[in-house]
């Protein structure tokens, strides 16, 4: 009896652990200028909206890729947000990468292949800094996850270019309400209507930011949708097992109490 009791306790514990792991959301920022927001991928069953992530890729490609790399992502990974292999091939082939040296040792350029990583705007970080007044535009692959406040911070940052308060010295950059210290080296990248969405969605500033969040959450956690749907199945399984165990526990105890065992 003791053993069955224990097993049931362990199952309850496991169920609870799985549940809390699933609801685990990113760290909250202490910065009062970052409002905690709700996103489609929050919570136990939340998923990344793939159509939104594809629009985010378009914004990244047309606006952000001029300064920011995305070096942890290969073109073929785009299948994760619904691209077919032909679409990936033609997307990759718009870009050029260094080819292997030929038989004479000459290095030329070749069109990028699906297996190549996203090309970087600069050859190295010194060049990146040189072109941005000494500030290094960070790689965006993991940036949403890497900042305290995560997606909420990202949203507030891109929305945070406001009129600077009087007497504020912004000679070293641009005033931004959400950026720690409020002075950022990145000029405001989005105003709304910055792209013409291929799927016809209206490109408001809000829409562009939300789409970038979908896309960059996916680049940081490409397994998020699979993990959550697997977690959900494990959760159901644990509930099922707990119920079965509980029923058998009741049944056995009934017989013990009745003095049959
Ligand atoms: C003209 C170049 C340029 C463009 C275009 C640009 N950025 Fe930046 N970005 C920078 C620089 C430079 C920094 C570093 C800022 C600093 O250190 O003060 C930066 C920093 C950032 C950061 C990190 C902020 C932090 O908390 O450290 C994020 C996120 C970011 N950019 C997102 C974007 C997105 C999204 C786009 C496209 C919509 C974009 N950037 C377009 C130059 C650019």
**Class by alpha and beta content:** mainly alpha
Largest sheet: 2 strands, antiparallel
Each distinct ligand: heme C
Beta strands, count: 4
Range of helix content: 40-55%
Widest sheet, order of strands: 1-2
Distance between the termini: 11 Å
CATH C-level name of the largest domain: Mainly Alpha
Query: Could you list the spans in which at least 5 consecutive residues all have pLDDT below 50?
Result: 25-30
**Overall geometric form:** extended
What this model shows, in words?
The protein is mainly α. A hairpin with a 7-residue loop joins strand 3 (174-175) and strand 4 (183-184). It folds into 2 domains: 1-27 and 228-261; 31-73 and 117-222, Cytochrome Bc1 Complex, Chain D, domain 2, CATH 1.10.760.10. A two-stranded antiparallel ribbon has the order 1-2. The protein is extended and about 85 Å long. 43% of the residues lie in helices and 4% in strands. It contains 8 helices and 4 strands, in the order H-H-H-E-E-H-H-H-E-E-H-H. Mean pLDDT is 91; it is low at 25-30. It has helices at 2-23, 50-62, 85-92, 125-131, 143-146, 150-158, 205-220, 224-257; strands spanning 96-98, 109-111, 174-175, 183-184. Heme C binds at residues 59, 63-64, 66-68, 132, 135, 137-138, 143, 147, 154, 157, 173, 184-187, 189-190, 212.
Structural descriptors:
261 residues, mainly alpha, Cytochrome Bc1 Complex, Chain D, domain 2, two-stranded antiparallel ribbon, 8 helices, 43% helix, extended, binds heme C
